Amino acid sequence: MDTEVLVLKDPEDPEIIDKAAKVIARGGLVAFPTETVYGLGANGLDERAVAKIYEAKGRPNDNPMILHVSSLEMCERLVKNIPKEAKDCMDMFWPGPLTMIFEKKDLIPDRVSAGLPTVAIRMPSDRFARGMIAKADLPVAAPSANTSGRPSPTKASHVLEDMAGKIDLIIDGGSTEVGIESTVLDMTVKPPMLLRPGGVTLEDLKALLKDVDVDPSLLGGEPKEVLHPKSPGQKYKHYAPKADCLLFGGNLKNIAKEVDRRIRENPDKKIAVLATEETMDFYQEKPYLLLNMGSRDHLEEVAHNIFDDLRHCDEEEVDLIFVEGFDFQGMGQGIMNRLLKACGGKVVLGL
Ligand code: TXA
Ligand code: MG
To answer: pLDDT tens-digit profile of 120-170?
Structure first.
């Protein structure tokens, strides 16, 4: 299949919105920008269209998808009931990087929810995404537009790497703003439970809802196979670059010393170090790649860059990636969740 790429200069370009909406309506696949990462979209009410997403991504069948909506009315058509806490969250965070889990109505195919009685819904703030969904007048099922197991795409070039020849259309809207995926919050339990940290922080949620539980499989940091994850996606080794990846925690100068030592110990390996604005000068050894993820004072910058940096390491075919860790606070929680997965849980702590 030929994959067409359309460059979006104006997020409300009526012709491109119309074209993308038509591909969705006729059961095709469109990769499109959202404020978090690029999504791989299909008509969320069409079982066969949704099956194509699993196929293109190589995604396990038991991992359900998010339905993207453009209005509250569209959300109401899909779910059985919207609890008060969810309404408050919608007022505060929609449109935006928050996904909520509800009890689903029967019109949603089992393929979307992977057989669960619940469904994940999100209203993206990206104007193109909302325009396309509204034009199609259909909920759009969309996981991140990467091959399963690869870092999520934050640029159209990332999508092209993974999806060329497998999907109908890619909308190139430039690099996505947030850079990590949406926060997933289960509204079918009381208090609501955080299943995936993301663009909306736990602190933001607690300021609004008072009480928020955190999925126990998140607390330990590393994905634990033994705990049955409430959000099936959390159990897979996601976001993995091709190289071996190791995460370091502790005093930043000590981290640099330890990384320097490991660079000296591995003279034959192509090594990438993912550092931060504040620590770039701490490293004495020169690795093959020294990347600046952004400033520790602006973790949004780090979130914005993280997947692109991991893909950059893949492109350069490095053997080893050493990454600095962050505190589990604010955006740090979402960043660490992705980094721990990229490292398959391999960490060196307490430096
Ligand atoms: O930012 C995002 O959320 C992006 C953009 C494209 O919107 N999408 C995204 O989709 O990250 P995906 O499929 O990569 O991640 C969806 C997550 C998975 O961890 C999945 O297990 C979880 O949401 N999920 C979906 N439906 C669920 C349900 N009914 N119950 C619990 N978790 C669910
Ligand atoms: Mg994903």
So the answer is: 999 999 999 999 999 999 999 999 999 998 999 999 999 999 999 999 999
Least confident range from 235-244, 248-257, 316-325: namely 235-244
Decide whether any atom of ligand 1 lies within 6 Å of the 345 Cβ.
Answer: no
Nearest CA to ligand 1 atom 31: 231
Q: Looking at ligand 1, which residue's alpha carbon is closest to its atom 19? A: 233
Task: Look at ligand 1, atom 3, and give the residue with the nearest C-alpha.
Answer: 182
For residues 276 and 91, what is the distance between their CA atoms, to the nearest angstrom? Answer: 35
Q: Which residues contact 15 (CB under 8 A, 6 or more apart)?
A: none
Which of 29, 36, 99, 306 is the best mutation target for the ligand 1 pocket, counting ligand atoms within 8 Å of the beta carbon and taking the most? 99
Ligand nearest to the CA of 126: 1
Indicate if ligand 1 lies below 6 Å from the C-beta of 201. Answer: no
